[in-house]
Specification:
Strand content: 25-35%
Strand order of the largest sheet: 4-3-5-6
Shape: globular
Protein name: DUF4198 domain-containing protein
Organism: Alkanindiges illinoisensis
Largest sheet: 4 strands, antiparallel
Mean pLDDT: 80
Helix content: under 10%
């Protein structure tokens, strides 16, 4: 994966199948389904045919850190891709 032509390693992606139950984002941590590797590659294995939504945010969404005072990035970019697996 690239962002502005630069590597975006260790970026989490969410994969959802159309018609599947969506998880409640308020329930526990919102953990990614897959991560890009050190070579910026993403490998997704689809077990069923159908339509899928693949989405990510860059930089990864974060919340203010009360211990360090660090604030989340001012600009966050959201990407989504729909594909059909046959």
């Amino acid at each position: 994966m690239l962002f502005n032509g630069k590597p975006a390693a260790n970026t989490g992606l969410h994969v959802e199948q159309a018609g599947a139950m969506h998880h409640d984002e308020n329930e526990g941590e919102d953990k990614p389904d897959v991560m890009s590797d050190k070579d910026e590659q993403v490998r997704i294995q689809f077990t069923q045919p159908g339509q899928y939504l693949i989405k990510t945010s860059y930089p990864q969404m974060s919340y203010p850190n009360s211990k360090t005072g660090e604030q989340p990035a001012a600009d966050v970019y959201h990407y989504a891709l729909t594909i059909t697996v046959r």
